[in-house]
Design a protein that fits this description.
The chain is α+β, with helices and mostly antiparallel strands and 195 residues long. The chain contains three helices and ten strands. It starts with 11 loop residues before the first helix and ends with a helix. GO terms for molecular function: metal ion binding; oxidoreductase activity.
Amino acid sequence: MEQKWPQEVASFKPALLNLNRKATSLGIRILQGLALAMGLDRHFFDGLHKGAGTRKSLTSTRCNYYPEVTDETVIVPNQIRIGEHADYVTLTLLFQDDQGGLEVQRKDGSWCPVLPVPGTIGLFVDLLLQRWTADKLKATVHRVIVPEGKCPARQSIAHFIVPDDDVEVKCLDGSDTYEPVNTRSFVTGIFDKTY
């Protein structure tokens, strides 16, 4: 499928492609650190994510825009802007503005706000990494709420690090905690259920 780019902002495409390259590179560096922490070869994940930026991987960058809601009569207590979910790839890098609203779920099921800190990047463990680690690393369940009854416009950019389409993800400890899955089939299967 051909990507669509806004014609009104000529610099958008090169800027976003540059962000995509840099975010993918950072994601691979993070995976190298995780591999070392898990006692694996530093480059274990590199070869499994080499197709990022090509048609051999679903690695992608998504720009999210939440419009401002000024009619306070339509904002209800505990209003959700995006429902609770875990991303279904390896890692997500999140760049968010200063409007707030992002929350992550704690082990006990309660929600913790992720306060925006200028110059930082959020990092989420996703479902494929949870499968690889047989639950040693748990996927980050998160949501976006309307903070304190205000509903300003909010923007974020999520960069999804996805293994190559042909990679089989199976528990690295040899357990059968999860059955092996093909990356593309797993991700597109969730897309199909969601959309």
